[in-house]
Amino acid sequence: MGYEYLIAGLEDIALGQKPKFSLQQLIDLLHEQLTESDFNLILLLQKTNNDPSLIQLFQEDSVQDRFHETTLSENDFRTQLLYEEGCKSKNKFVREWFEFNLNLNNVLAAAICQKHKFDIDKVIVGNNEVAQTLRKNGVGKNSNLAVLLPELKEIIALTDIDDLLQREKHIDALRWQWIEDNALFNYFDTQAVIAYYLKATILHRWDELSKEKGEEVFRNLINDMKKDIKF
Q1: Are 154 and 108 in contact (CB under 8 A)?
Q2: Burial zone of 143 (CB within 10 Å; 0-12 exposed, 13-18 middle, 19+ buried)
Q3: What is the DSSP string of 20-37?
Q4: What is the distance between the alpha carbons of residues 231 and 228, in angstroms, rounded to a whole number?
Q5: Listed residue (103, 96, 93, 98) closest to 81, CA to CA
Q6: Measuring CA to CA, how many Å separate 145 from each of 73, 107, 139?
Q7: Is the pLDDT of residue 170 over 50?
Q8: Given this model, what pLDDT does residue 230 score?
Q9: What is the mean pLDDT of residues 32-60?
C-alpha cells in the first residue's frame, strides 16, 4: 500500500539530529494513517522481552519445556521468543530487521564473553545459522561468520571502544546504515514508513541515554552474565 501523503508530510530526520516531534506523537500519527495490519507491524517493533504477551507465552507448559532444555536465563529466553515472533512476520523488511538485530546482539554478546572468559552458550539467543556458529566456534577466524554476516568486522570492532556511550552510538549508526541499505528503493510504501519509525526510535533513544546510563547498562549486562554463567 502507498503512503505518499503520509511520508511527504513527515519531518526530515538525520542521524545525530533531534526530531521536533515526540515518539508518541509519531506513533499516534501512524495509528491514524496506517492500515490495521501495517500498524500491527509497528506494535511488533515496539515489543520488548517484558511484553505481557511474551510473559504469558513463557508460562505455557510447552514453552516451559523448551526453556528447561536451554542454558538461557528467563530474561534471555523471553528475548528469544520475541525474536522468533519477529522473524516470522509476514513483512520481509521486519523479518530481516529482527534477524539483523538478533545476529548483531549475539555477536556482541559472544565477543564480550570471550573477552571476559565467560561461557558463550549461556548468552547466545536463537538457533539460526549465526547462533549455531557462535556456539560452536565463537567469533574465531575459523568460522564462516563473515559469509553469514557482512557486518561482522564492524560489529566485533565495537567491543574495542572503551567509551560505552560512544560504543552505543556506533551500534546505532550500524543499525541506521542497515535501515538505509535495506529500504533504499522503498519511497512511499509500508517499508518506508517502518524505516522512518525505526530511525525515529534511534534518535529518541539518545534523548534518554547519557554516559552514566550507558555505563550502568553495561555494568548490569556484566553482572547478569556473572549470575547466569558458571566459570
Answers
A1: no
A2: middle
A3: SS-HHHHHHHHHHHS-HH
A4: 10
A5: 98
A6: 25, 9, 8
A7: yes
A8: 38
A9: 96
Place of cell 517502518: 194
Task: Specify the amino acid at residue 231.
Answer: F
C-alpha cell of 96? Answer: 530481516
Residue whose entry in the numeric block shows the C-alpha cell 549455531: 132
**Rounded to 5 degrees, what angle do the CA atoms 129, 219, 108 make?**
20
The CB-side HSE value for 110 (13 A sphere, CA atoms) comes to 24
- Nearest alpha carbon to residue 1 among 179, 180, 184, 188: 188
Residue 9 has pLDDT above 50, yes or no: yes
Of residues 130, 224, 112, 217, the one with CA closest to residue 168:
217
Q: Among candidates 44, 72, 76, 78, which has minimal Cα distance to 59?
A: 78
Query: Would you state the cell numbers that stand for residue 30, as one nine-digit string?
Result: 501512524
For residues 63-89, average pLDDT: 95
Contact 125, 76 (CB under 8 A): yes
